[in-house]
Amino acid sequence: MASRAAAKREGGSGRRLALSVQYAIDSDGVPQRTAVRRWVRAACAGAAEVTVRFVAEEDGRGLNRAYRGKDCATNVLSFTYSREPLLAGDLVVCVPVVINEAIRQGKPAEAHFAHLIVHGMLHLQGYDHEVEADAVAMEARERDILFGLGYPDPYEGER
């Protein structure tokens, strides 16, 4: 019975999602847990245990330096722990970077947060964009997911 109840809570899909949303920054414009859950669920192909942590620039920079060797804050970092049989990983979203990018790109912050959560979730599932063909495939998947969520094409005008 518990599994049917869980499936019902997740829209009848039978896909279990254990999601932790953490706020290590006090900032206006940080997405609410309900929005984050919606974005993660839309981008997740199966059962998952995911933590999404919203951080300040200093924290984002420290993690990017420690794990990628880049001494700057980036918009989203993904850390995959397993893909099978259960997707498990963390996303770290640097709030000031995302908000500044949204302003520079003339996008609503909500749409940009949604895009980066979807982008990070696809990374957790093995998508990448280092090679042009992989980038095209990943971007197409992002567009499909975001369209389903009611957001515009995040790459419009870039290619």
The helix fraction, in percent, is 40-55%
Radius of gyration over alpha carbons?
A: 16 Å
How many H/I helical runs? 6
Give the class from helix and strand content and strand pairing: alpha/beta
CATH architecture: 3-Layer(aba) Sandwich
* pLDDT < 50 runs, ≥5 residues: 1-13
| Overall average residue pLDDT | 90
Major pleated sheet: 4 strands, mixed
The CATH topology label is: Collagenase (Catalytic Domain)
For the terminal residues, how far apart are their CA atoms?
49 Å
Counting DSSP E segments of at least 2 residues, the number of strands comes to: 4
Q: What is the CATH superfamily label?
A: Metalloproteases ("zincins"), catalytic domain
Pattern of helices and strands: HEHEHEEHHH
- Main β-sheet, spatial strand arrangement: 1-2-4-3
